[in-house]
Write a structure and sequence with these properties.
Strand content: under 5%
Order of helices and strands: HHHHHHHHHHHH
CATH architecture: Alpha/alpha barrel
Distance between the termini: 47 Å
Radius of gyration: 20 Å
């Protein structure tokens, strides 16, 4: 009965809730662009705009949100774990920094790498289900499923535990370095845009949006070819097995479609990354400060100053 008041009274509980708000904001704001990115990566059917017209015209606007329930259902816990793990590891990797000071950039980068590797254990099955749903009605998958639970049950029944974690290796290879770039870029850019804000936490909403957006862009550019390979591997099922691992997938897609395939859909991914991660960090920071200091955030004044 007293769980929630006690939970929110703790630092861990507040960061958990703030992380959840950030994750939800990110999913809702960028999911249609994510669907276009997945479709671009899985074939060479044209530009993002032509795919958008085809999807909306043939399958309806709702198709852009197909599979969103899977990441949305897990995003509160997943995002909370990411931010909480990062907060712990960024300190642990550089314990020489006083507790009252922000983590060093070295701690930020190493903490991000460790966070990315660990969160892959949660993210890989969720993205597998999401990708299978996003590629329905596209000729990539022969079976049609109504929702994420049905897809997950089918994967477990036909492919077992190994099938649920198909693509885990490439997810770790993608997310470990990308999260290092992600958190480093955010911390570095917010300090550059608003000197001293890492200590006083007084940056404007504009700073949060821009630093978060640039962090997302940097993290995607550094790992994008790995993401293309991950999409191809996770789109497979036992009845449509084409690639026998990461290197085999890399060789085959380059041979069949050229080196450009490794960057196909990058424009869509970068646009989505800026929107999504600006929303994630802004929602996280605002929620965290509302929980810690009753919403004392100097947004309006500083937004006017930066404009």
């Amino acid at each position: 009965m007293d769980f929630w008041p006690e939970f929110l009274a703790s630092s861990w509980g507040r960061e958990f809730v703030a992380g959840g708000f950030g994750g939800i904001a990110g999913i809702v704001s960028g999911y249609p662009l994510d669907t276009l990115r997945i479709r671009q990566q899985s074939s060479n059917t044209g530009s993002a705009f032509s795919i958008l017209r085809h999807v909306v015209g043939k399958e309806g606007p709702a198709a852009l949100y197909r599979g969103m329930a899977a990441p949305l259902a897990s995003v509160t816990f997943q995002n909370a774990v990411v931010f909480q793990t990062y907060a712990i590891l960024s300190r642990a990797f550089d314990s020489s920094v006083p507790a009252n000071d922000p983590p060093s950039y070295k701690g930020v980068a190493l903490g991000g790498i460790g966070t990315g590797a660990l969160q892959s254990l949660l993210l890989s099955p969720v993205e597998l289900v999401k990708i299978r749903l996003q590629l329905q009605n596209k000729g990539q998958l022969t079976e049609f499923h109504k929702g994420p639970v049905t897809v997950a049950k089918n994967i477990w029944r036909t492919e077992g535990f190994r099938g649920i974690y198909r693509g885990l290796g490439i997810t770790v290879l993608r997310d470990a370095p990308s999260h290092g770039f992600y958190f480093f870029t955010y911390e570095y850019m917010r300090e550059r845009l608003h000197p001293g804000c890492r200590k006083n936490c007084q940056e404007s909403l504009n700073t949060m949006l821009i630093a978060g957006g640039l962090a997302g862009v940097a993290s995607w550019i550094c790992c994008y070819p790995l993401d293309v390979i991950k999409t191809r591997l996770q789109a497979q099922s036992p009845t449509s097995l084409k690639y026998n691992g990461i290197l085999d997938c890399l060789r085959k897609i380059i041979k069949e479609e050229g080196y450009a395939v490794l960057w196909r859909g990058l424009g869509t991914a970068v646009a989505r990354a800026f929107v999504v991660n600006g929303a994630i960090f802004s929602a996280y920071e605002i929620a965290l400060r509302c929980l810690f200091s009753n919403g004392n955030i100097p947004m309006e004044e500083q937004m006017e100053e930066t404009m």
